[in-house]
Target: ABC transporter ATP-binding protein
Amino acid sequence: MAADNNILELQNVSLTFGGLKAVSDVSFSMKDNEILSLIGPNGAGKTSTFNLITGVYTPTSGNVIFKNKNLKGKKPHQITNMGIARTFQNIRLFKQLTVLENIILAMDHTRNINFFLSLIPFGPGKNEYEKVKTQALKYLEYANLAEYQHLKAENLPYGKQRELEICRALATGADLLLLDEPAAGLNPSETSALMDIIRNIKKDLNKAIFLIEHDMKLVMGISDRIVVLDYGKKIAEGSPEEIRNNPSVIQAYLGKEG
Model:
């Protein structure tokens, strides 16, 4: 089982599709309140690893342990309820709903009645609406999104949509956030703002953050540790400085960036 201070542990995990091993005997652990990055070339198995953690795929062999509980065989919604939330490379907001409604929808764990009743500020939903709205606004204020609360999500600038998706993941109450290429499509200014948000989530909210990212400035700037995959296998693990100077990583990945 996972060590007491490990929030997540992959134990000799493999995922096979036919004769193709998307993930091959991968092991690593992640501590509470840690920022861990998963990097590697396209096709290295990064997204497959996320899918194994979130229940989209079931490991062919090995175990995924979260808070000393085995996730193998659990459905995505069960894993979400256990305290893991995920964002996606392709933004998946409810674009016709407002920014505030997107956060309220994510707060299922705090509601005593269903989502639609909790949006009605009268009748049986009044008290619930006020309670959930107050908490949702706190999340938006934390992410500097409160001024956009009444705007439809589809009308947010792209960088703000990225921030809203992270804010929505926070609103689930998760202890572990999985961020799939959160800087994809962002300009340097937006990426810098994103880095600040991720750092603050760790510092202020004591969350563990696990991210896939190709932006090496972001990865090297915020990560406590980095795991590197290549062709489904783990080829390195260590601090940003250790990874930056690792010959195997330079050959497989970093050297291709320069």
In short: The beta strands are 6-17, 20-31, 35-39, 61-66, 69-70, 84-86, 176-180, 208-212, 225-230, 233-238.
